Amino acid sequence: MSQNHPRRQLASDNYAGICPEAFEALAAANHGHAPGYGEDAWTARASDLVRDVFETDCDVFFAFNGTAANSLALSALCQSYHSILCHETAHVETDECGAPEFFSNGTKVLTVPGRDGKIDPAAIDHMVRRRSDIHYPKPRVVSLTQATETGTVYAPDEVRAVGERARANGLHVHMDGARFANAVAALGVAPKELTWKAGVDVLCFGGTKNGMAVGEAVVFFDRSLAAEFEYRCKQAGQLASKMRFLAAPWVGMLEGGAWLRRAGHANEMARALHRLLSDVPGVRLLRVPQANSVFAELPPEVSDGLHQRGWHFYSFIAGGGSRLMCSWDTELADVEGFAADVRELMSRR
Fold this sequence. Notes:
The chain contains 13 helices and ten strands. 40% of the residues lie in helices and 15% in strands.
């Protein structure tokens, strides 16, 4: 492609630009003056729309990025001597540079196993019971990633199973929903069925990967846990002085359902890419995509050849294979072009 029309990449949905609905709402908010620090009409409207989406009264806070959203939410649920249980491939463990521990003043992250990037509910019991002495950080929170780092999604009954084991052990439940929209679109269920009705106390609802420039919503379904959370946001540099520009894109995404349409399209492109690669001899696909990513094992010389042709993708995420991530703006021509290059390079071996 030309410099004026650069290739859409498969490395991350962070590569994509702002989708039209978010951009138009951002532009609409850029007229005249409005109160700062979240006292504006855009922030109020965005918060109400989040409550409408989840069909419940909840406390909503807006943060700049997922690392801050997750870390601050987890810090609100823990004391420094507690621990957070998450899957061994969870983003809060592998890709946040110790931020959950930092913002919680030392709360330890402990990993638990499970197939396909999902926590095994029985592992929660094991981690809680393995030690209860004062020398060990006491488990306090279970953190789920939805969709997971391996591209799978927790179905409602799976979230409930984790929620039930957490409740039985006196633990709170946090959900890292950086790609929550993709999970909802994939499952076709009401958002409440994956969150508060299944036992989730707080959700970090991802906006950036869904098509916004920046911004995540921290949603407390248990409002008692949100006490003084605004102070945590301020102290961590997450209280936007011009909050309307963080909140307005949410209005654009939620009002007309663009958040689900855009996520559904990204999921569809991942399924298309999976179909195309499944016809290429020698390519091993690691699992059927449930959200917007495809994991494939590519021979080193093929992977190198793709990089040399200008394709960007990661090969160090979630324990193996190359991750190919589709975005809200991925087009069929993009995945067809990638698959064609894979096929040609494989034929040269």
